[in-house]
Amino acid sequence: MAMKIRLARGGSKKRPHYAVVATDARMPRDGRFLEKLGTYNPLLPKDSEDRVKLNLERVQYWLSQGAQPTDRVARFLEAAGAAPKTERKNLKKGEPGKAAKDRAEKRAAREAAANAPAEEAASE
């Protein structure tokens, strides 16, 4: 059985509150889980100690049983010192989108066309 440690959303509309749970990967996000391991309240300030609460003993138990944390939970574990830091690379983040690429190509073509007559006149 593929195990995950992930967030289950609670709270009302526009007021999220998450439970950190150990669950079967096939279960829905807010569906059945095996154990609640902690909480996460994104509305609290980042330096608040109540923002992320984890029962690290139980988290370590589930990790030893083969549970895989999701990206967000892995960051919580890194901050708590329960997991080694991993380097992340978002190679597509700095790359412009399709529309920006098209605009850059059109601008380059326009500038090349504008510079071509000026270069011919300078060479004569």
TrEMBL record:
> Which stretches does the entry tag as region Disordered?
80-124
Query: Any signal peptide, and if so, which residues?
Result: none
Do you know which InterPro entries this protein is assigned to? Ribosomal_bS16 (IPR000307), Ribosomal_bS16_dom_sf (IPR023803)
Q: Which is a Pfam family this sequence falls into?
A: Ribosomal_S16
Report biased composition (Basic and acidic residues) as residue ranges. 85-110
Gene Ontology CC annotation, any one: ribosome
Keyword Ubl conjugation present in the record's keywords: the answer is: no
Q: Could you list this entry's UniProt keywords, alphabetically sorted.
A: Ribonucleoprotein, Ribosomal protein
Question: Which residues lie in Low complexity bias regions?
Answer: 111-124
Q: Where are the transmembrane segments?
A: none
* Family, per entry: Belongs to the bacterial ribosomal protein bS16 family.
User: Which HAMAP family does the entry mention?
Assistant: Ribosomal_bS16
Q: What is this protein called?
A: Small ribosomal subunit protein bS16
Q: Name the source organism.
A: Paracoccus cavernae
At the highest ranks, the source species' classification is: Bacteria, Pseudomonadati, Pseudomonadota, Alphaproteobacteria, Rhodobacterales
